[in-house]
Design brief:
- The structure holds two protein chains of two kinds.
- Chain A is built from five helices and no strands.
- By secondary structure, chain A is mainly alpha-helical.
- The model of chain A has no long low-confidence stretch (mean pLDDT 90).
- Chain A has one domain (3-78): Non-ribosomal Peptide Synthetase Peptidyl Carrier Protein, Chain A (Orthogonal Bundle), CATH 1.10.1200.
- Chain A has helices spanning 3-14, 22-25, 44-55, 61-65, 70-78.
- By secondary structure, chain B is of the alpha/beta class.
- Chain B has a single domain, classed as Glycerol-3-phosphate (1)-acyltransferase.
- Chain B has ten helices and six strands; from the N terminus they run ααβαβααβαααβαββα.
- Chain B has helices at residues 11-28, 33-64, 72-84, 101-109, 112-117, 129-132, 136-144, 156-171, 198-204, 249-276; strands at residues 68-69, 90-94, 124-125, 175-178, 210-218, 233-241.
- A six-stranded mixed β-sheet of chain B has the order 1-6-5-2-4-3, sandwiched between helices.
- In chain B, helix 1 (11-28) runs antiparallel to helix 8, helix 8 packs across helix 9 (198-204) and helix 9 (198-204) packs across helix 10.
- The longest helix of chain B has 32 residues, at 33-64.
- At the A-B interface, helix 3 and helix 4 of A face helix 10 of B.
Chain lengths: 81, 277
């Protein structure tokens, strides 16, 4: 799977948790999930679980703690699939 | 360490009790010795100064704020039976509408003398440091009120340390209170989708536990406030559950937290159904 496709899927996963859906339109790999997209920090667990289900991968607690930006999530996924 | 006692006539049950006690020990040793000492010292200071501080708070609550807990005698009788009879790790999970909910929960569940003799039942709780650590008086009162401040925006390591400490205290037979919504509910209703999974993080590591779900609300309370409305009577309901999950890791945390918040939501629905009839 290409990086672009992974990023699109990550943005799809983020959609239900983003306060302002328009923020996703301009999201880049540097976009901070908590600060720029204003995702509630307690929903990060749901996002990680959704990523595990979507890409059929396992993410450890330490790896999950390092996911700050859209790019971090994409990098984590592409490293595992 | 709080231990479950074996049954002399049942070897299978004895084996299970042994496994549970071993797992409890394992769950408790994660906490560094300096943290254990700090909490033990805090416990002692709280207990020593309880007869000074508690009457002042109860006086304010009953005679200045004039709040009354509905069915108070029955609640206290049930709590004594449920919490007092065994030291199985117990977590109180409540809805959250005012800054002083934990004080009202303490007041609802037992009298001052009862807590003095059974101080483990005076529950620990984890207020947000940014709200309760702002001036020296608040610091002293929260410290003596068995509070462990948590920084909501703190690092995962900080959150882990606080949750590990709560788990350790529960293994010692101490009661702990947590608000699964994380903060006060802005809408005035339980927001199921806002549940924090920290409650699941604490419980999933324990081999044996129970949760006392508390739904509490002043009768004219519409939305979140600092204090319950003055002179209001306070509706108070509680249920004991043991939420479980067949999943592992984060999924188990989510399942357990969702079960608890859904129970609280059901209790809220019961409250409003009764109010509207």
């Amino acid at each position: 799977m290409e990086v672009k496709q992974v990023k699109e899927k990550v943005l799809d996963i983020l959609k239900p948790y983003v306060r302002e859906p328009e923020d996703l339109v301009n999201a880049t790999e540097e976009t901070d999930i908590l600060n720029d997209l204003k995702v509630n920090s307690s929903r990060l667990v749901d996002i990680i679980l959704a990523i595990e289900d979507e890409f059929d991968i396992e993410v450890s607690d330490d790896e999950a703690d390092n996911v700050m930006t859209v790019g971090d999530a994409v990098k984590l996924i592409t490293g595992k699939i | 360490m709080s231990q479950i006692h074996p049954n002399d006539s049942d070897p299978v049950l004895n084996n299970r009790v042994h496994i549970v006690n071993q797992d409890m020990k394992a769950a408790a040793v994660n906490v560094p010795s300096n943290v254990r000492f700090q909490r033990r010292f805090q416990w002692l200071m709280s207990w020593l100064l309880f007869p000074v501080l508690a009457p002042v708070i109860i006086f304010i609550l009953r005679y200045i704020r004039k709040n009354r807990i509905e069915n108070h005698k029955k609640i206290r009788m049930l709590f004594k039976r449920i919490a007092g009879e065994t030291k199985i790790p117990t977590l109180i999970c409540a809805n959250h509408l005012t800054k002083v909910d934990s004080i009202y929960i303490h007041h609802a569940f037992a009298s001052m003398p009862y807590y003095w003799y059974h101080f483990r039942l005076f529950s620990w709780n984890i207020p947000a440091k940014e709200n309760f650590w702002t001036n020296p008086i608040d610091r002293v009162v929260t410290y003596l009120g068995k509070c462990i401040p948590i920084v909501r925006t703190g690092s995962p390591e900080h959150h882990k340390e606080v949750l590990d400490t709560l788990r350790y205290l529960m293994c010692k037979g101490e009661l702990c209170t947590i608000f699964p919504e994380g903060g006060r509910s802005a809408s005035g209703r339980i927001e199921v989708e806002n549940v924090r999974y920290g409650v699941g993080t604490i419980l999933k590591e324990l081999p044996n536990y129970r949760v006392i779900c508390v739904y509490m609300r002043a009768r004219t309370q519409e939305s979140m406030t600092d204090l319950p409305p003055k002179g209001d009577s306070v509706y108070f309901d509680f249920k004991v559950i043991t939420p479980q999950s067949v999943a592992k890791g984060r999924r188990a945390e989510r399942d357990i937290a969702r079960t608890i918040i859904q129970k609280l939501k059901d209790m809220e629905d019961t409250y409003f159904a009764g109010k509207n009839n």
